[in-house]
Amino acid sequence: MSNEVMDFVQVCLRPDYIERPEIEELKALLCFNTIDWAEVAVGRTEPPSSMRQV
């Protein structure tokens, strides 16, 4: 697993939910640095995953 993905997993799995990141903090992680979130918001590009993939 890449360091970027490991960072994502570590911040999402913090035992204290108060310490877990908000959505904007998650979107700023390096593993998402190639995603243009404004384009996702207006529907011009797909998000990195969808619930159909889960």
TrEMBL record:
Top-level taxon: Eukaryota
InterPro entries named in the record: Kinase-like_dom_sf (IPR011009)
SUPFAM superfamilies: Protein kinase-like (PK-like)
Protein name: Acetyltransferase
Species assigned in the record: Hymenolepis diminuta (Rat tapeworm)
